[in-house]
Amino acid sequence: MTDTTIRREASERERESGEREVDEDELVCPECGGRLETDTEHGETVCAECGLVVEEDSIDRGPEWRAFDSAERDRKSRVGAPTTNMMHDKGLSTNIGWQDRDAYGNSLSSRQRAKMQRLRTWNERFRTRDSKERNLKQALGEIDRMASALGLPENVRETASVIYRRALNEDLLPGRSIEGVATAALYAAARQAGTPRSLDEITAVSRVDKDEIARTYRYVVRQLNLEIKPADPESYVPRFASDLDLSDEVERRARELLRNAKEQGIHSGKSPVGLAAAAIYAAALLSNEKVTQSQVSEVANISEVTIRNRYHELLEAEGNTPSY
Predict the structure, then answer these.
(1) 47 labeled binding residue
(2) Is the pLDDT score of 216 beyond 60?
(3) CATH architecture of structural domain 131-224
(4) Annotated binding-site residue? 151
(5) Among candidate residues 124, 126, 129, 62, the one with its CA nearest the CA of residue 96
(6) Domain boundaries defined on the chain
């Protein structure tokens, strides 16, 4: 190795070490060692301690327009919505607006309106290229409709859409209705997310009967190896208490009754909805809040006999004697 090569390698090492030192010290003021802050309004980087302007005329990476509320921000934004599994094309396709107006807000002529309507028709046809996509579009529409009726959050709808896509890809639909598999996917997603709905509630908004939903649900869970824990009775308590307009004290007391029942193994083999409804009724009586068995029965969609039986068991497990 020659002297020239040695000197060249040494100079390169010095230059690299100098660059590392600059990188480490770039957030520190070179005058006083204070903290540097970025002033986006003036495009400057200044020291918070001594006020030294370290950098100016920085690049503004934000939009060139201003907005003063969320509606104006959405209207001026030129980017699309994020991709989602809740749409059959994941939201990547375009839509032609239903308003018959041009870019300036002026009404279109009758000939232009007819042309736009024809474009909308062909756009809708091209969005679903084959029977599989048409199947998916119908199922995801059903999931969205039922989830809205049940008041389920967006994460449950997204999970249900993923479950249905898996069932479709693994050919689990032959011999089963689209509505049945879609309902089963939503039922499974709600239980996975910890916001379960009873089978009766699901049946009330579905287009298939209860037996088909239960049968399809078991089949989908088994074939897709979904890990779904048994429904926790406590997960129903907040919704029932809210629908009955009961206090937080009743909700807390109902949770205590259910935890005590779990410790003694009373919940085994019992319907979680029935246990939750009975706990709400018992907690309301213990807290001196007026509620009838028929009101709880209507909210929980179970019979008064079930509430009465579970209510006695919960109070006996806690050592209280129920009043007949």
Answers:
(1) yes
(2) yes
(3) Orthogonal Bundle (1.10)
(4) no
(5) 124
(6) 131-224, 233-318
Is 50 annotated for ligand binding?
Answer: yes
pLDDT, tens digit (0-9, with 9 covering 90-100), for 258-280: 888 888 887 777 888 889 999 99
The share of the chain scoring above pLDDT 90, in percent, equals 27
Where does residue 296 fall: left (phi above 0), alpha (psi -120 to 50 degrees), or beta otherwise? Answer: alpha
Give CATH superfamily name and number for 233-318: Cyclin-like (1.10.472.10)
The two tokens of residue 40 are 């986006």
163 is in an annotated binding site: no
Which of 197, 199, 206, 151 has its CA nearest to residue 179? 206
Is residue 130 packed enough to be buried (19+ CB in 10 Å), middle (13-18) or exposed (0-12)?
exposed
Give the span between the Cα atoms of 286 and 324, in whole angstroms: 14
Query: Which of 217 and 80 is assigned the larger pLDDT?
Result: 217
**Radius of gyration over every alpha carbon of the chain, rounded to an integer in angstroms:** 31
Res 20: pLDDT: 45
